Amino acid sequence: MSSTAKAICAVIAIALTAVIGFVFQWGWFWISWEIFGAILVSIGCIGEWMLLLSEEHSEHKNREKLFAIIVAIGVTMDVFGLIHAIPEALQLSRDVAEANERAERAEKEAQSFRVKADEMEAKMQPRRIRMEQRTNFIFLAQFIPKVPIKILIGQEGRDTEDFASDLRETLTMAGFTANADAGPWQINRDSTLFVTTHLENTNNADLLFFSYETNDLPDLITIWGQKLPNGFLMPTKVSTNEPQVYAAIKYCLEDIGIKCEWQRDTHYVHAGECLIYVIVK
């Protein structure tokens, strides 16, 4: 059999073996395949190099053909190995992309969980009015007429009592007095009242401003004032009309970071009256 025929048979045998490997997808098969092909290429190249260094020329031609066939077989095996490796590399790239996408989704979910955990932790913290907030309120409310301000709590807990007490102290420091019928700590109490939220309470407010008439809605009352560089509004033109005073106070409280909402009420306030209700947290 000629060398050409032998080479063709070797290539056919390699191709059939590669087909078997593609069909059964043995991991060890392709590892062994690529290693064996690389060894054949190495042997063929080393043999060619040794022939070039050898002084014996009689058998050079036959040996050179043999080593050339070995190199051809090794290179052919590498080609089939490459054909197998490229789809695996593409699949690996897809797997990496999917893994990165899953990791990104997991990170977003973890971030969302941390945000919710922080919000929950913040809600669990007791509500207090810091000294900085009090100082800012006193400054903002300096031109508001100092009429008596009524504060109401219902089925209170410790947090509600402390927050209502802080509010009363802040108002007192700003020059506002308490209503004549105020209870202990200048706060009115109704143990039968329990309000944590309301349909109109859209911003998870800490304070509800009760007003008798819809026209007394503080959010609809125009408050004239001076816009400060920090974005705060200092009410400067407020009448002694009770709804206007409460509306101005509401603006100042919101500026210092206390969430407030309007609430129409006909039980605790009469026409032209307002009060501040501290919501149970």
Notes on the protein architecture:
It is a single chain. The chain is an alpha/beta fold and 281 residues long. Helix content is 55%, strand content 10%. The chain folds into two domains: 3-123; 131-278, no CATH class. The chain is built from six helices and seven strands. The strands form two sheets. Strands 2-1-7-3-6 form a five-stranded mixed beta sheet. A hairpin with a 5-residue loop joins strand 4 (224-227) and strand 5 (233-237). Helix 1 packs parallel to helix 3 and helix 2 crosses helix 3. The chain is rod-shaped and about 120 Å long. The mean pLDDT is 77.
Radius of gyration: 43 Å
- Secondary-structure content class: alpha/beta
SSE order in H/E notation?
HHHHEHEEEEHEE
Helical content band = 40-55%
**Strand arrangement, largest sheet?**
2-1-7-3-6
Straight-line N-to-C gap: 96 Å
Biggest sheet architecture: 5 strands, mixed
What's the shape?
rod-shaped
Helix count, per DSSP? 6
What do the pLDDT scores average to?
Answer: 77
Count of extended strands:
7
* Number of discrete domains: 2
Poorly predicted ranges: none
Give the percentage of residues in beta strands. 5-15%
Keywords:
281 residues, alpha/beta, 2 domains, five-stranded mixed beta sheet, two-stranded antiparallel ribbon, 6 helices, 7 strands, 55% helix, 10% strand
